[in-house]
Amino acid sequence: MNVLLTIASKEMRDGLRNRWVIAATLLLALLALSLAFLGSAPTGQVGVSPLVVTVVSLASLTVFLIPLIALLLSFDAVVGEVERGTMLLLLAYPVRRWQVIWGKFLGHAALLAIATGLGYGVAGLVLALMGEAEAESWLAFGSLVGSAILLGTVFLSIGYLLSALVRERATAAGLAVAAWLVFVLLFDLALLGWLSATEGRGVSADAFSWLLLLNPADVFRLLNLSGFEGVREVAGMIGVAQGAALSPPALLAALAAWIIVPLLLTVAVFQRRSL
Q1: Whole-number pLDDT of residue 227
Q2: Alpha carbon 201 to chain centroid distance?
Q3: How close are the terminal C-alpha atoms of the chain, in Å?
Q4: Using an 8 Å Cβ cutoff, are 107 and 4 in contact?
Q5: How many CB atoms lie within 10 A of CB 209?
Q6: What pTM did the predictor assign?
């Protein structure tokens, strides 16, 4: 455990030294504040909670931005160290390869959690000062922040796997961009195209729900946009929630599996990799 914490703290210090956390936090805070102020504008006319509107807007932003930040942070976590020769130096110490992977991963996950929590927390603080007090709205906001951190951790894990599989940083960067496109854009477009081509008869409602588990971005959307009544109404997800075969615990378990499985594969690949 001491080895893991030592490696994790080293990654955190490197991230702070490179001002990565500050830049990511400021970016997330700026965008979250913009959505919070813009989302509060129509609430006086339609009677919708400003925090609920912010949750819906932030959920859409998170799906695009958090995976990209996580992949940019992790795509060279392994191959970059190998190319620079620092991995051989690190392994010269009494540490095991799995400890290197898990330690670096914990450090990067902590950095991402800090950036996300502080960035979105600023928007929550502003809305609290504006008088937002509904318990369910705050529960939805807390769920958004927590699941956003989980989503980022998922893509950290995917980035680590890509980084362990290749020999050059440029290849890892290309694969990271491809992974972002597939999970954030192309998967849903392909699924929508299939449903359109088959006029909705190509897959049953239950099968469709399970297919969404193949994409962590869709799991995040389901968890946040259909998990709370007020959010469902604003997001137009009432019908999806009624027909969904997956409960919030099942969705959380799916995100956990998306974290653990790629990371275990990363360890297995790195154990067999020649340096």
Answers
A1: 65
A2: 31
A3: 25
A4: no
A5: 18
A6: 0.89
Cα 140 to Cα 27, 42, 112, 232, 250: the distances in Å are: 22, 20, 20, 11, 17
Torsion, CA 207, CA 210, CA 215, CA 219, rounded to 10: 130
Tokens of 250: 């099942």
Q: What is the DSSP letter of 236?
A: T
* 267 Cβ contact partners less than 8 Å away, ≥ 6 residues apart: 97, 98, 101, 102
For 248-274, letters b (16+ CB in 10 Å) and e give eebbbebbeebbeebbebbbebbeeee
* Of 43, 234, 69, the residue nearest 131 (C-alpha): 43
DSSP 186: I
Distance CA 160, CA 158 (A): 5
In this structure, what are the phi and psi dihedrals at residue 166, rounded to the nearest 5 degrees?
-110, 170
Mean pLDDT of 102-130: 89
Q: Where are the domains of the chain?
A: 2-272
Closest to 6 (Cα-Cα) out of 99, 88, 115: 99
Locate 263 and state its tokens.
């990371």
Residue 263 has pLDDT above 90, yes or no: yes
Distance CA 204, CA 185 (A): 22
Structure tokens at 116: 């996300």
Tokens read off for 38: 């813009």
Contact indicator for 212, 218 with CB cutoff of 8 Å:
yes
The pLDDT-based confidence of 159 (bands split at 50, 70, 90) is very high
pLDDT at residue 177 greater than cutoff 70: yes
Mean per-residue pLDDT, 189-214? 78
pLDDT range class, residue 46, cuts 50, 70, 90: very low
